[in-house]
Amino acid sequence: MKAKELATPVKRVEYLYSDFTIGDAVKKMEKCHYTMIPVIERNSARYLYSVTSGDILHRIITGGDLKNVLVDPLSTVRIERLTLSCNEDVDVTELFELAVNQNYIPLVDNNGTFKGILTRRAILNFLIPTKEGE
Questions:
Q1: Buried (b) or exposed (e) across 56-89, using 16+ Cβ within 10 A?
Q2: Which pLDDT tens digits describe the chain residue by residue (134 residues)?
Q3: Domain extents for the chain?
Q4: pTM as predicted
Q5: Helix or strand or coil: residue 83?
Q6: Phi then psi for 85, rounded to 5 degrees?
Q7: HEC states along 13-78?
Q8: Domain at 3-127, CATH homologous superfamily
């Protein structure tokens, strides 16, 4: 089965644009209750990276004056852990190792355009089906 068949499509995923400020990111993450969120390029919709609430909190704490930090570009946040993406046409069985180390896998097409996310839960439910009645 291809990854895109199990994925949450982009229209149902919250994400940030790379031109957001840190304040924009904080508001969006608070609203959707995400602790990690994909960041995409506004014009091309290319997946760039994922940022965590911890990454943002670290930037706020070390950034000095809070008012100034909140208007800084999101690009000033140092990403502690790289969240690797994969092509939407990859077979799900090839993603187990990646899923072990990431909460979700951002899916992209051949141009790098963000298509959605494949959650660890979806991969594990597919690879380790439960018996009915349990």
A1: beebbeeeeeeeebbebebeebeeeeebebeebe
A2: 999 999 999 999 999 999 999 999 999 999 999 999 999 999 999 999 999 999 999 999 998 888 889 999 999 999 999 999 999 999 999 998 899 899 999 999 999 999 999 999 999 889 887 765 45
A3: 3-127
A4: 0.89
A5: coil
A6: -100, 170
A7: CCCEECCCEHHHHHHHHHHHCCCEEEEECCCCCEEEEEEEHHHHHHHHHHCCCHHHHHCCEHHHCC
A8: CBS-domain (3.10.580.10)
